[in-house]
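Standup notes, structure subgroup. Blocker cleared on the D-malate input:
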Amino acid sequence: MLVSTRDATIHVRTWSPDRPSGDGPPLLLIHGFPLTSALWDDVARGLVAAGHRVLAPDLRGFGESRGAPARTLADHVDDLVAVLEAVGVASLPWVGFSMGGYVAFEALRRAPERILALGLVDTKAEADTDEARQGRYALAARVAEAGSRVVADAMTPKLFAAGANEGLRRTWHARMAAADPAAVADALVAMATRPDSTPLLASIDRPTVVVVGDEDVLTPPSDAERLAASIRGARLVRVPGAGHATPVERPDDVARALGALGALAKPPRA
Ligand code: MLT
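Run returned:
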């Protein structure tokens, strides 16, 4: 489906269980950088089989979503809130993979009433270091000159576990290389300027699961351990045989972890 927001058109992939018992709460799945909702295809299948509805948007500028440049992560949060309004869902679990996790943290600041539970997949709460920030600006400048392939080339070796198959690497390299360079450069700037979310963690009072690939070199298990330890009651799920791209490398494990989260999420009483 397509949802028109103030200055964007957001493409949302939706999956619904076809059996009457499929009344699990819907989940919102937010992809990472510079990817699309296709990241969640296999995870969504597992969640639907467990009775959940799934909403997986393409963030503005990525996949089939279009709009004015998103220079901050708040722009994405506003788009996602508009999507929830369009589908008539007041609140639900937000699941963010990597940059999608940064979007979920921004939603905790901007629209906490929309969040019933949190799934934080291969992500972290800290802001960029100065060095990382400078690296993002330099990369954004290179993307503007040479296109998204430079990001695809830089990220592909870091996305997957050592044992990942060549087909997976090729497919995702091609998808990243096809991303709109303007959206890629905007996302680099939005990530570089995101605030530190660690001060938020102690106040999170929603069911939370933190998922990480055991071989993630971009947001390693040590980040996930620190994240889970800082959120009251958070469950940590380490996924063996996965790198950063856990949702495509081990979708069944991720669907199981998120399905358990969905079952814990209860809408507030009317
Ligand atoms: C992602 O997977 O979304 C990115 O690695 C996030 C980042 O660059 O910080």
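Discussed briefly. Residues 130-146 form the longest helix (17 residues).
Next: hand off to the docking folks.
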